[in-house]
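Predict structure. Chain length: 334.
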Amino acid sequence: MKSPRMICAFFAASALSTLLTQPLLAADVEWKFYTYFAAKDKPTSLHREFADDVAKATNGRFKITVFASGELPYKASDVLRVVASNQVEIGDVAFGFVAGDVPELNAFSMPFSCTSMDKFYDKAVPAISASVEKVMLDKFKTNPVMHWVMPPQQLWLVKPVAGIDGLKNLKVRSWNREQAEMMRLVGGSGVTITPAEVIPALQRGVVDGAFTAAVPALDWKFNEVTKFGYMINLTLAHQVVAVNQAALDKLPADLRATFLAKAKEWAPRYRAELIKADAEARKTLTEKGMTLRDATPDELKKLRELTKPITDEWVGKSGDVGRQMLNTAIQACS
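Prediction complete.
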């Protein structure tokens, strides 16, 4: 006769065997989330942490898989359209990249319109959210459930320059029209290059530098191909986490409520993490041998004067929504 201990052990082993052989239960809902950032970039890590938190909060019923650059056949300029067509349910939309689709929402790409991350979150976002939502819903049936922002855009150069005049005849990777136009106005030129091509282009001498924030500059190892950071704080890069509205509407009510609550909860986390990452990136790039020099007040004044026509032209084409967005950005961030 078997002892009670042996019987308990037998049933425990049988139960474990059953659990191991049964297939795992699938999530009730599975979504795809596309970001144009690379797999190891800071924003991609934040997107994945957000997705994991949604899964945890819904006990695994809602699974969001984050796809980085190169993992799906899309470019940064495609994101809004692929979300609108529900090829992916969520996308990381940078308005500077999709300005052709929603030009009136590109106010923060105007030179020096807003360069304070704190003021962007505290003052600008509450004032512009309704306008951004209306445009995206009306034009693309997408919902901007979270606003976030990359740190100020700087100019990273292979060789040091003494000031604005040193930018003449330089070719610089520019990821939006405004950056390219700024280079033209200072006597250089802007070159359109995808994020994945930036480092090879710098290595081969195709370009003399590149616009980006300090965080991706560190993520992409700019310290290995550039020596100088000209810290001009040109703009912030306004981003939204955009969701296909039809897909959002189809979610069970409890999952939709949890998802929206998590989006609201995570916006401050993006803010804190990226402000911290910006400071750490500047420090690390310096430690790795780069020289980072802040533009002087006189240089910034000259840049503001030189780039004013960019803003004036945009205001003339952007209509009332764009004009209101820009005025809000300037007032909130002044």
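Summary: The radius of gyration is 23 Å.
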